[in-house]
Every structure is written in structure tokens, then in C-alpha cells.
Design a protein that fits this description.
293 residues, mainly alpha, Hypothetical protein af1432, 2 domains
Length: 293
């Protein structure tokens, strides 16, 4: 059993524990302003050859078809826009992060599929409902990072994680994944991820979404709608078995969640259809960077 401080200290003392590429944090600061400077953003990306290569391949992929090929980072930024660039930078950074991890108890390809699936699901719900009236790229980012704590604990604490049942295997189905983790590890994956993301210097709005995505009802009020949105997207993907972060399949979504967001549960299947199609088209990411199971 660990306290949060003991666990994070132990994880951060592991020399092989990778972080997201440094360029991601530099770009996050440059993009998270009212009017980003296209020249500055272009220079930052251009200083990272793997990111430059991936970004140009993505800009010229079937996802972003155009009559003329994009040959420079600045052209890619102009074509796609800052919001899309921010999403792609985090996508590529997360793939590189997952690829750099030593073999753990979670299948990296399935983990990636679930993470990107939740990111796409948040975008799809937002598109259909207009629930969020601000920067849509942040929804994608929190969806991508929401289960980072599961990946970290399964990789670096296998001795306490390996016998952890998911919701489907639990003898008491009333217990949430957080309850099960707290019993086995001492803390849960949302606490692990939030602490690591905070140490990495990511904005508090991202940290809070990740920290409370299983408990939106106790989240800070100013972000509660966004966190309910993440909670719903994660739940839809678990019901539809979109990838796997090791939490198991969710059997149902509480009606109160739909009511809070003013949505109808009948939309679940049509949302899943769109999410799976986007994942299929995003396969270029894993093929470019090379996730291996």
C-alpha cells in the first residue's frame, strides 16, 4: 500500500520512466494563448525531426486530403489550424510515450485505441450537442490522457497491479474500478495520473479533468460540465469495447449522467459508429510512430 506522495516519488525515481517529449510542453504554452504565433510554433516543431516528419505525413494523409501536397511545417499549420495542430502534437507525443514504455500488463495498442477513442468520442458529443463553447482541442487532449494512471501503474507497479480485477471480474459488481485499485494499491489511477501530469506542468484544467473523470459529481464546479463530458465519453467507449485500458467493459451508464448533460442514451450506438470510423482513419498515427504490442 502506498500514499500518493510515496507512489509518485517512487515512480519519478525510476530512471527509465519517460515523460511526454519536452517539445509537447513548449508547444502547449505557445498554443495555449489567444493568438499563437505561427512562425514560433513552426520553429518549435521544426526543431523536432520525428515530430516534423509525423506532422507532414499526417497533413498529407487521407485524413487531411488536399489538391496540393504540404511540404513545410508552416504550410501544415496554416492548412490545419492551431486547434488541429495542438491535437495532433499530443497524439504523436502520446504515441511516442506509449512506444517508449517497457512491456507492462496492458496492451499498448489496445490502450492507445481506447485513449484516442475517448478523445474522438468527446469531440463527437461536443459536435452534436455544443456542450462546450470553448477550445475543442482541450477536449481531445484530456480524452487522450485520461487513463494515463492505468498505464503507469500497470507498467511500473506490476507486483501490486497484476492481480487487480476489473469491474467484470470483481466479486462485488457494486465496487468501482477506483475502489478496487484503492484496495490493492492504496490509491487509484486518477490520482496517479493527475499527480504525474501536474509534475509535468500541464494546465490545471487538464489535470482536474483526468483526476475527476470517474467522479464528476465532486469535481470543481467550474469544470464539472467538461468532466461529465469526459466521464460519458469514457463510459460509451467502455460499453462499446473501444480499445482497453484494463478497466473492463461497463455494463450501463447511469441515467443521471445523461440527464446532467441533457442527452438521450439512444445516441450511444450512432456515436460509437462515428468514433470507430475516426479510429480507423487515425491508424496512420500508430503506423507512423510504430506502437508495438
Amino acid at each position: 500500500m502506498y500514499t500518493l506522495k510515496e507512489l509518485i516519488d517512487q515512480l519519478l525515481n525510476i530512471k527509465k520512466l519517460p515523460t511526454l517529449p519536452p517539445v509537447i510542453f513548449i508547444l502547449e504554452k505557445s498554443l495555449n494563448v489567444k493568438e499563437p504565433d505561427v512562425h514560433r510554433v513552426s520553429r518549435i516543431i521544426s526543431d523536432d525531426p520525428p515530430l516534423t516528419s509525423a506532422l507532414l505525413k499526417l497533413a498529407n494523409s487521407v485524413m487531411y486530403t488536399a489538391r496540393r501536397k504540404t511540404t513545410t511545417v508552416q504550410e501544415a499549420i496554416v492548412r490545419l489550424g492551431f486547434k488541429e495542430i495542438r491535437k495532433l502534437v499530443f497524439d504523436v507525443g502520446m504515441v511516442r510515450y506509449v512506444s517508449a514504455l517497457p512491456k507492462g500488463l496492458i496492451d499498448p495498442q489496445k490502450f492507445w485505441e481506447h485513449s484516442i477513442g475517448v478523445a474522438f468520442c468527446m469531440e463527437e458529443i461536443q459536435l452534436r450537442t455544443g456542450l462546450r463553447d470553448h477550445d475543442g482541442s482541450s477536449a481531445h487532449v484530456v480524452g487522450l490522457l485520461h487513463d494515463l494512471g492505468r498505464l503507469i501503474s500497470a507498467t511500473y507497479l506490476p507486483d501490486v497491479h497484476q492481480n487487480l480485477p476489473d469491474n467484470e471480474q470483481s466479486e462485488d459488481p457494486r465496487k468501482s474500478i477506483l475502489d478496487l485499485e484503492a484496495q490493492r494499491i492504496g490509491i487509484d489511477h486518477t490520482q496517479i495520473a493527475a499527480a504525474v501530469l501536474e509534475r509535468w506542468g500541464l494546465p490545471l484544467e487538464i489535470v482536474n479533468c483526468v483526476r475527476f473523470h470517474h467522479q464528476p459529481d465532486v469535481a470543481p464546479k467550474i469544470q464539472r460540465k467538461d468532466i461529465y463530458l469526459l466521464h460519458l465519453a469514457d463510459s460509451i467507449c467502455r460499453i462499446g469495447r473501444v480499445g482497453d485500458s484494463g478497466e473492463g467493459r461497463l455494463k450501463e451508464i447511469k441515467q443521471a449522467v445523461w440527464d446532467t448533460l441533457g442527452l438521450e442514451s439512444a445516441r450511444t450506438e450512432e456515436i460509437l459508429v462515428q468514433v470507430r470510423e475516426k479510429i480507423k482513419n487515425s491508424g496512420v498515427l500508430s503506423s507512423i510512430i510504430g506502437i508495438k504490442s
